[in-house]
């Protein structure tokens, strides 16, 4: 098999492993109300499941980046798939809250090992011009794992029951690990071998240099501001909000999660192509995604529930733009850091959105308990309206971080000889060039 065909096979297997990882990650979102009944969990305790999972994921991103630079992607993806499988088996059999929480910790550990490892193989196997698009496709097609959670897993959950549903998810995880072991490879045949494993001192220096690179921080705030709202919605609070807060049926809520994935798959390649064509204007796309998301949530929260069904559909469509927007953060890590530090830099970037997601997930659980009556009665429309407002704090922090980091990154680029003109000047220059071309084309030889 030639290299060009093999790269697509390797990428497809990595994508499949990530897709199954997303299914594991989001499986608790469709089971939130069932888990509340099974384990007798109040809203704050229920959010604790996902918060701990995300806390583990976020805290492991930088160590995983270091491990990736040291051991390569194949070993990490296999370990991640097996760890998530173990977590799903434990959750399937758990009858107490501590065991269920331990299960989600295992899912968080395995999830942390998977995504940035698959991205590193994209960078190794594909031409540089294709990397932004392939990064978007990897992130967005991987979100089809949410469809596996929202449709077949939910059907098993509400049919055969809790244990068969999560054991089925574990079985798919074993298949993913076996497929990766058979096919997945870190780099193309004949590619230069990776540098020797760094020493502990070199690891610390790499972390420091990656963090002090303004482009890495720009990627972190990009990931933070664009990803968290959709992730919190998909991972835990979306279905309870749509059902208990907006009066939708469970089937309709699951359908909206499927729409969330479908829109993201469409938007991803468009965002990837924009990033490849206009690398100096990526931040404006990021700012637009954050602003539109905040505006849409504002429209929904200002209306006493239930909001019009069409507005909830619009909200889900807008939330679906967050994951492809967050992929731009990884592109910053790639373009502002040398190859030997990219695993570390991507790990730092990935901390942003997941840290924001875990904090907002926890805050919503706490606010639901405070804003509504105790116990299951806390899942009330008014309590959800109050709880979702916590998002505005994160959007404000992310926007300030993007603007400040962008200014510093551009200042450093200018010192190195690359000046990025203000957007207004660039647009004016483009209009002048277009007029000049039109004027030249209209002249006729005398």
TrEMBL record:
Question: Which InterPro entries would you find in this protein's record?
Answer: MFS, MFS_dom, MFS_Efflux_Transporters, MFS_trans_sf
Asked if the record carries the keyword Membrane, the reply is yes
Gene Ontology annotations for the cellular component aspect, listed alphabetically: plasma membrane
Give start and end of each Major facilitator superfamily (MFS) profile domain. 10-413
Looking at the keywords, is Nucleotide-binding present? no
Pfam families from the entry? MFS_1
Task: Tell me what topology the record assigns in the membrane.
Answer: Multi-pass membrane protein
Q: Which residues cross the membrane?
A: 7-24, 44-64, 76-95, 101-126, 138-159, 165-184, 218-239, 251-272, 284-304, 310-333, 345-371, 383-405
Q: Please report the name of this protein according to its UniProt entry.
A: MFS transporter
Where is it chiefly localized?
A: membrane
Q: Name one GO molecular function term.
A: transmembrane transporter activity
Location(s) in or outside the cell:
Cell membrane
Query: Keywords assigned by UniProt?
Result: Cell membrane, Membrane, Transmembrane, Transmembrane helix
